[in-house]
């Protein structure tokens, strides 16, 4: 491969319209102390869907059962965060019950409405809101 690293991110969308976000830990190199979608790096030899299921299980204990890839975009701030290709999914159904903050990637997790997301002073990128809006508008 030798290309830029890839990441997968899941925007879990509840039936009440709220979205699950994680507050990235203070020690993270990129976007420390910012609210972000759940996810992480795609490992060597791993497919995007495989990476999505693994990361969601590791980070919040949920296994996506219905999901759609909504956006694949290069890193918006490569000079700050390094080059990468990000794949953002909306997850509309999952197994595992309630989301739990597992591991040390996030200092907390919480559910937000889109208006609440838009009001966050420390949301990583506004595209997360646009992705959910586009998903809702799709047939």
From TrEMBL:
Keywords, alphabetical: Hydrolase
Top class in the EC scheme: hydrolase
CDD domains: NUDIX_Hydrolase
Annotated EC: 3.6.-.-
Domain Nudix hydrolase: 3-137
GO molecular function: hydrolase activity
UniProt cofactor(s): Mg(2+)
Pfam (any one): NUDIX
Name of the molecule in the record: NUDIX hydrolase
UniProt cross-references to Gene3D superfamilies, sorted A to Z: Nucleoside Triphosphate Pyrophosphohydrolase (3.90.79.10)
């Amino acid at each position: 491969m030798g290309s830029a690293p890839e990441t997968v991110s899941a925007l879990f969308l509840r039936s009440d319209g709220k979205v699950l976000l994680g507050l990235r830990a203070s020690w993270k190199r990129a976007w420390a102390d910012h609210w972000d979608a759940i996810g992480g790096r795609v490992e060597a030899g791993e497919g995007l869907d495989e990476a999505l299921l693994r990361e969601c299980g590791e980070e919040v204990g949920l296994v996506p059962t219905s999901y759609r890839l909504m956006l694949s975009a290069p890193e918006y701030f490569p000079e700050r965060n390094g080059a990468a290709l990000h794949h953002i999914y909306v997850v509309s159904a999952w197994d595992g019950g309630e989301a739990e903050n597992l591991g040390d990637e996030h200092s907390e997790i919480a559910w937000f409405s889109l208006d609440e997301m838009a009001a966050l002073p420390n949301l990583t990128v506004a595209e997360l809101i646009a992705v959910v809006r586009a998903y809702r508008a799709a047939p």
